[in-house]
Design a protein that fits this description.
With 276 residues, the protein is of the alpha/beta class. 40% of the residues lie in helices and 21% in strands. Bound molecules: S-adenosylmethionine.
């Protein structure tokens, strides 16, 4: 049976939703249109985070359950939305969650989370198998996550920052917490679990970062890049790596007209169906 290695909880609801990346839960028009919530729907939201998107969907459906691997995020979820079901689940081993994989959901939904959850090749198929088993026959899996090349400039700059602090490039690469698959690789994984691929698309979404004190590109790197920075033993070394990455990115993402900072997000969206 597959096992998942324990991971540190890097998620801070206060930093994530308020300071660094409020756009994650709000830049969602297309995937919400693809979700097409119905009053009869029972939905499982995997990697729901602190729940702002789950809460937007909730009034339009019969039931929605938010699950997330981060105790910090779920604590925040429960405080903000006590009327919506939520709980801590490491979705890498979703196929071992016996009370969720009962074939009772009409839809499994996920936004901006599968590239984290599917990072480890050993447990990738456990997650997708869990989605399959959670669904009724004919049920839909609807996802948006990072595609091949997502945030490539920031990803590269962080690796470069680690290398300047003496980390071998292979080790820096290996520390990446993400799996950004091509359209074809995701389709293969999903079909391999028994789903029929309904539709998929890859889209460049240039995204303006926040400007506040804990945000910007530095805030982004410190929050989402934490698994990389953990390789460095001292605060000084981390600060130097972050500074290097920010300096490298300065001429890449800074807008000339208003000074705002843009990151090239590349999104992979798909809908897949469990056969009737
Ligand atoms: C960028 S946030 C997206 C949250 C939310 N879906 C939204 O759209 O705002 C990614 C979420 O994936 C969760 N996550 C990462 N690895 C996970 C795992 N193995 N199991 C469950 N959730 C995980 C994180 O805890 C985090 O809340």
């Amino acid at each position: 049976m597959a096992q998942a290695q324990e991971k540190k909880d890097i998620w801070s609801a206060d930093l994530y939703g308020e300071k660094v990346a409020p756009f994650v839960a709000t830049s969602t028009e297309t995937i919400l249109a693809w979700l097409d919530p119905k009053p009869t729907d029972e939905i499982l939201d995997i990697g729901s985070g602190e729940g702002p998107l789950t809460a937007r969907i909730a009034p339009h459906v019969k039931r929605i359950v938010g699950i997330d691997g981060s105790p910090n995020m779920i604590e925040h979820f429960k405080n903000s939305y006590p009327h919506i079901e939520s709980r801590v689940v490491d979705c890498r081993l979703l196929d071992q969650e016996s009370d969720l994989i009962t074939g009772g959901f009409d839809k499994v939904f996920s936004n901006a989370a599968l590239h984290w959850i599917l990072r480890d090749p050993e447990t990738r198929s456990n997650t997708i198998k869990g989605c399959f088993e959670a669904l009724k026959p004919g049920g839909l899996l609807i996802n948006e996550s990072g595609a091949l090349g997502n945030v490539a400039e920031v990803h590269s700059a962080i690796i470069s920052g680690l290398v300047t602090q003496g980390i071998p490039v292979e080790k820096a690469r290996e520390a990446s917490p993400w799996w950004f698959p091509s359209h074809q690789a995701m389709k293969g994984l999903v079909e391999g679990a028994g789903f029929n691929w309904v539709k998929g698309e890859v889209q460049l979404r240039q995204t303006t970062l926040t400007e506040n004190e804990k945000g910007g590109v530095e805030g982004w790197i410190r929050l989402f890049g934490e698994p990389f920075l953990e390789l460095l033993p001292t605060t000084e070394a981390r600060d130097a790596a972050v500074k290097h990455a920010v300096d490298v990115l300065e001429s890449v993402g800074r807008q000339q007209h208003d000074g705002s900072f843009t990151v090239n997000y590349i999104r992979l969206r798909f809908v897949a169906q469990k056969p009737e």
